[in-house]
Amino acid sequence: MKKTFIFIALLIAFAMTLVHVLIGGRLIARPLLESGLDTLPRMTLYLCWHGVTIVLAGMAGLYADALFWRRRADSAWLATALAAAFFVLGWGYIAAFGLSPLQLPQWIAFGPMAVFGALGARSLSAETTKSAKTVNETPEIPIAKDRLR
Questions:
Q1: How far is CA 36 from the centre of its chain?
Q2: Would you state the pLDDT for residue 71?
Q3: Distance CA 147, CA 149 (A)
Q4: Can you give the pTM of this predicted structure?
Q5: Cα gap 50→33, rounded to integer Å
Q6: Tens digit of each residue's pLDDT (9 = 90 or more) over 76-135
Q7: What are residue 138's phi and psi, to 5 degrees?
Q8: Alpha carbon distance 49, 146 (integer Å)
């Protein structure tokens, strides 16, 4: 089941990256670039836009790492912490600025991503801890007591 949870979180992260680049680029980044803002604030915001793109793609990469490559829970926990932070940040903006939740709908994806990521990472952590205990146990070495004299 842990693989299913991580896989769902991976799909959400990948979809968020695509939505951010393809739809958000058209609805947010292009109007930003065409705005009358001075060059420095406009380019700073555009740089932040690309930074978010990198973070979203990185989150998908972390879930993929936890699922396919290293199979370590720490990758999933990091992506999950980022998803939870974006979820809280989004709701913080909604509350602070009196916005409708649909005006900043990113929470709709970050919430489930954080939940599925946490469920998968927790299962993966339990499995990793179990296998680590097995590896670290000192094996019993049979010794014939009569030969020790």
A1: 34
A2: 84
A3: 5
A4: 0.81
A5: 13
A6: 999 999 999 999 999 999 999 999 999 999 999 999 999 999 999 998 887 766 555 555
A7: -80, 120
A8: 74
Give the C-alpha distances (Å, rounded to integers) separating 50 from 16, 116, 121, 147. 14, 26, 27, 71
Decide: 121 and 21 in contact? Cβ < 8 Å: no
- Provide CB contacts within 8 A for 110, sequence distance 6+: 16, 83, 84, 86, 87, 90
Angle value at C-alpha 61, between 90 and 74, nearest 5 degrees: 85
Residue 32 CB contacts under 8 Å (≥ 6 apart), including other chains: 42, 45, 46, 49
Please tell me the distance from the alpha carbon of residue 63 to that of residue 10, in angstroms, as a whole number. Answer: 5
Q: Give yes or no for a contact between 58 and 80, defined as CB atoms under 8 angstroms apart.
A: no
Token reading at 108: 């709709």
Burial code (b: 16+ CB inside 10 Å, e: under 16) for 17-40 equals beebbeebeeeebeebeeeeeeee
Q: How far apart are CA 111 and CA 105, in angstroms?
A: 11
pLDDT of residue 138: 56
Quickly count: other Cβ atoms within 10 Å of residue 116's Cβ.
24
Residue whose structure tokens are 């939740």: 101
Give the separation between CA 86 and CA 101, rounded to whole angstroms. Answer: 14
